[in-house]
Specification:
Elements lengths: L17 E4 L6 H31 L6 H18 L2 H7 L6 E3 H34 L4 H4 L2 H27 L8 E2 L6 H5 L7 H34 L4 H29 L8 H25 L2 H15 L6
Parallel strand pairs: 1-3
Antiparallel strand pairs: 1-2
Keywords: Cell membrane, G-protein coupled receptor, Membrane, Olfaction, Receptor, Sensory transduction, Transducer, Transmembrane, Transmembrane helix
Membrane topology: Multi-pass membrane protein
Family: Belongs to the G-protein coupled receptor 1 family.
């Protein structure tokens, strides 16, 4: 802690300038084992998401709204993972896991921005699937490039504003005493609990933003899939119904994992899980999901596999010049 003079109730106090992250484990041997594991996971996350973005750019068959959104989803996953993973990985090799007040606020802001943007983008992708199945003849007209660009811009801008509205009041609370965060990253619920101020307003802002963006996006997804199911029930051919459902399988899997894990992390009663279990859930939500998303879309998607074959064939048959 650094002594910074502050007046509150006409008294001098000491303001926290640094936080201490306890990390995943305090056992040195285990940290040395976890270091290469999580470094490998982070590198795979980068390679798979960057590779998917490049593949979508290179293959003209993937220049459709669904893959346009998927490219931005991969970019979000890269940024989301990068907001937390490098710091966590480097902390495995440190005895003192210190993070400055500003760095902690920045880490939370970026992570929250990307998480909220993913909520909005998953909602946009659900609407895209509804139009593709429920209004196939109008799909090209409805999901034009202009609308797709506006939906992506709306996701990023609304998430940016939501994250800013959350971060500023929470980090403007007064922190004067304990500075130990029982986590491997700057989780806002742990940080607010360290505040010497009344956190009620900040907690209400956190709840309202999470409700409007998180639950609002989830409601759009539920409504879209309700209309999708209604549209599929009108299809007489079983084969066509199965094909329509298959186009939603990857998105539905990503939504289920993202929201299912997110709700288990943030909505469970504090007494029902130990701190170690909280960290395990957070690791899956923050570290593993950005790695799994491109895999889910790639392994279950014939178009992506075919596009990869075309790109590899094109690259291996480039003319050789002496």
């Amino acid at each position: 802690m650094s002594p910074i003079r502050s007046m509150e109730g006409e008294r001098n106090h000491t303001s926290v300038a640094m936080f201490v992250l306890l990390g995943l484990s305090d056992e040195k041997e285990l940290q040395l084992i976890l270091f290469p594991i999580f470094l490998g996971i982070y590198l795979l996350t980068l390679v798979w998401n960057v590779g998917l973005i490049i593949l979508i750019r290179m293959d003209s068959h993937l220049h459709t709204p669904m893959y346009f959104f998927l490219g931005f989803l991969s970019f979000i996953d890269i940024c989301y993972s990068s907001s937390t993973s490098p710091r966590m990985i480097s902390d495995f090799l440190r005895d003192k896991k210190m993070i400055s007040f500003i760095a902690c606020a920045t880490q939370y802001f970026v992570g929250s921005w990307m998480a909220q943007a993913e909520c909005c983008l998953l909602a946009a992708m659900a609407y895209d699937r509804y139009v593709a199945i429920g209004r196939p003849l109008q799909y090209s007209a409805v999901m034009g490039p202009g609308l797709c660009q506006k939906m992506v811009a709306g996701a990023y801008v609304s998430a940016f504003i939501g994250s800013l509205v959350q971060t500023v009041p929470c980090f403007h609370l007064y922190y004067c005493g304990p500075n130990t965060i029982h986590h491997f990253y700057c989780d806002i619920s742990h940080i607010i609990s360290l505040s010497c101020s009344n956190p009620f307003i900040s907690q209400m802002i956190l709840f309202l933003v999470a409700f409007f963006i998180g639950f609002g996006s989830f409601l759009v997804i539920l409504l879209s899939y309700g209309f999708i199911v209604a549209a599929i029930l009108k299809i007489s051919s079983v084969k066509c119904s199965a094909k329509a459902l298959n186009t939603c399988a990857s998105h539905l899997a990503v939504v289920t994992i993202f929201y299912g894990t997110g709700l288990s992390v943030y909505l469970h009663p504090s007494s029902s899980h130990s701190k170690k279990q909280d960290k395990v859930l957070a690791v899956f939500y923050v570290i593993f999901i950005p790695m799994l998303n491109p895999l889910i879309y790639s392994l279950r998607n014939k178009e992506i596999r075919e596009a990869l074959k075309r790109v590899v064939k094109r690259l291996t048959h480039l003319p050789q010049y002496e």
